Every structure is written in structure tokens, then in C-alpha cells.
Amino acid sequence: MTPRPASAPVGTVTRGTTNPNRLRRMDRWIAAAHGAELRRATDPLAVDLGYGAAPWTALELLHRLRTAAPRTRVAGVEIDPARVASARPYEREGLVFLRGGFEIPVPGSPVLVRAANVLRQYDEGEVAGVWRLLCARLAPADPATGSRGGLLVEGTCDEVGRRHVWVALGPEGPRTVTFATRLGSLERPSDLAERLPKALIHRNVPGEPVHAFLRDFDRAWAAAAPYASYGARQRWIRTVRALTADWPVTDGPARWRQGEVTVRWEALAPLGWRDHRRSYLHL
Prior knowledge:
Blueprint lengths: L23 H17 L4 E5 L6 H13 L4 E6 L2 H7 L7 E5 L12 E5 L7 H14 L13 E7 L5 E8 L2 E9 L16 H4 L7 H15 L8 H12 L9 H4 L3 E5 H4 L4 H9 L2
Parallel strand pairs: 1-2, 1-4, 2-3, 4-5
Antiparallel strand pairs: 5-6, 6-7, 7-8
């Protein structure tokens, strides 16, 4: 893969914290939700943006996506040149490491960009500009083939990958928010609030939609307590099924069984999003 012409990388160096299998929940969701787009793409390129101080997440992304789309290629992109140099010995067929930032220095348009734990150190006001840059780099939609275009998955997880929350965005902007957890470690759904992505984490206050959602999630979890005797999975499924009465849940029991639930972005978006959407993303 020949990188795009050199320019100053956009962004700042992150802490680089990473662990093997940290992003497995996110990867498996991507493979299930976006595998068809990767399979139909002429050039199924995925980008692991800000992979950190070690290359494990890029290696794992390649392996997991290839179970759904065998032709997938992965480019690990890091702004720190020392991290890129240390990752280069791990390159193999279908996997390269490049220096860059939010400009994404790869030729063409990626079908997937995964940016996990990258924006956590940024200010909330910077998120819109980063989303705009990254969405502009995605493969465009193609109505002739039924393609919705590339996907940006941006979110946060804990150090060992037990709790995740991410936003999925297409070329047109944000689509959904997914909450994913290891059910055996969950006391209540609102425990996931600490892993909300930067666009939402400061909005978990009364009056904001995401706060109302987590409040309803906890109430449904409490009401489903009798199902705990059948296991945490059955309690979660019952809880999410109850949420569907008031919230636009987009997935079904097959994903709920994995400890996930996905909700339309518009239902959780910060107040004022609908009024200012075009200026917010400049779309």
C-alpha cells in the first residue's frame, strides 16, 4: 500500500494504552454489522486509527474482519513515529502500519475506520471537527449497489474490554450508539456511563436524552431482577426487550445475547442536535 503524499498529521499523541483483546466486543459487532459492506467492496480497506503503543488491536482487527470478509486489508495508523517503527516488524499480507492522524494517509476511501479510545483526551467541542474529517474520508454510498458507504466506529472502552460504548457513523453522519458489556461483571446498566464517548459523556445529566435512556435502562434492569435466576444474559434480554417500548432499539435478540444493545443516534443525541445538525457536522 502506497501512502498518500506526506503532510503534517492531524491530531495529538494519545497515551497509547492497549491490551490484547481489549476491542474484541467492538470488532465482533463490526464484523456482524458491516461485514456485508466489506464483502461487496472492490477494495475492502479498514483503518485502525490510533492503535497505540503496541500493534495488537490492528492484528486482531485483521483476523476478526477476515472471518466475515476474507479480502479485507487493515492499515494501522498512528501519529507517533516511534510507535509506527515498533509496529512495522508485525506487518504481513493485508496489514501495514503508517504514520498519520485524522487525515488518514491511505490511498482511496476506507470502508471502515475504527477509532477506539482516541477522542477521550480531546475536548467535547473538538469532536464535531474530527467526525467531519473522518466521515469525509469514508467510502461514499452507492445506491446502485445498495451500499450505505463506509463506517466510522468511534468510542471508548475500559482497559480490559469489559465495557464499551461507541457511535457508528456513515458518510452522512452518526447513525447509532451501541452499549456492550461482559454481563457477568455488570451491576447495573448505568455503570456503562463512564465509557460514553466524548460526544455524550458530559451530557449524562438530567434533561439530556442519554441521561434519560440510562435512567430507563436501570429501571428496566431492576424490573427484570426475577430473571437473574436464569442468568445475567436472560435478565439483559428481558431488560432490552422492555426498553424497545420507548426507545428505538435497532438490533434484536441475537445481538442482545452478546451483551449488546444498539439505539438510533437521534434518540440519544445532545439537546440541540436536530436543530444544529448541518452546522455541527458541516454536512
